[in-house]
């Protein structure tokens, strides 16, 4: 089983256990909303543009609500579980290349929104793939960082991003935790931060990610 499919299966199991009304780290979204989002991005490409483009967000939200009404929570969970859907199931390798990170992040969005949770120890090859994504995407992920950012991966590796000048904040942790940090989950990523106190506070409040 690929890592993408393993994360998909684990998230589907967690959805089923928690039900539709549990919180997530996605602001304003319950598990029901997140399940609908995952189905939309795979199976409704006509509406997926609003995920990243604000002018299209209204249509995306409308389609997301229609998916909830049509399938219900249990139906959406089964669609997530049975994937990859759409183009992700048709193009060899695309599911692993794109959905590994997507499902890892959203799996943690559900796990870490619960009252009790613990960080997972990730397989070495998965950590390596996360670090490659962090290094390749740091310019995009950290483009809104108001300070210079130095990412230190536990186990080896350094990547620079954020502002070109001014104060610097060093962020240290496993690759998966750095990925979550760079995708706007700063308050929930298990990382160590060092630097000027005001600069750290500004980075923690910044809107990071794509």
From TrEMBL:
Domain of life the protein comes from: Bacteria
Transmembrane segments: none
Taxonomic source organism: Planobispora takensis
Protein name: TIGR03085 family protein
Record-linked SUPFAM superfamilies: DinB/YfiT-like putative metalloenzymes (SSF109854)
């Amino acid at each position: 089983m690929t890592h993408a499919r393993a994360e998909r299966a684990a998230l589907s199991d967690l959805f089923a256990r928690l039900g539709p009304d549990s919180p997530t780290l996605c602001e304003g979204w319950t598990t029901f909303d997140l399940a609908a989002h995952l189905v939309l991005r795979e199976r409704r490409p006509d509406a997926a543009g609003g995920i990243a483009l604000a002018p299209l967000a209204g249509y995306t939200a409308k389609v997301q609500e229609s998916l909830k009404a049509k399938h219900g929570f249990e139906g959406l969970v089964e669609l997530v579980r049975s994937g990859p859907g759409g183009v992700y199931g048709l193009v060899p390798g695309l599911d692993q290349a794109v959905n590994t990170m997507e499902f890892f992040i959203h799996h943690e969005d559900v796990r870490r929104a619960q009252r009790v949770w613990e960080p997972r120890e990730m397989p070495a090859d998965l950590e390596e793939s996360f670090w490659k994504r962090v290094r390749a995407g740091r310019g995009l992920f950290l483009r809104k960082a108001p300070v210079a950012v130095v990412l230190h991966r536990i186990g080896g590796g350094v990547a620079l991003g954020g502002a070109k000048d001014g104060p610097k904040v060093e962020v240290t942790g496993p690759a998966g935790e750095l990925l979550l940090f760079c995708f706007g989950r700063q308050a929930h990523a298990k990382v160590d931060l060092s630097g000027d106190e005001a600069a750290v506070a500004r980075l923690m409040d910044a809107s990071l990610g794509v």
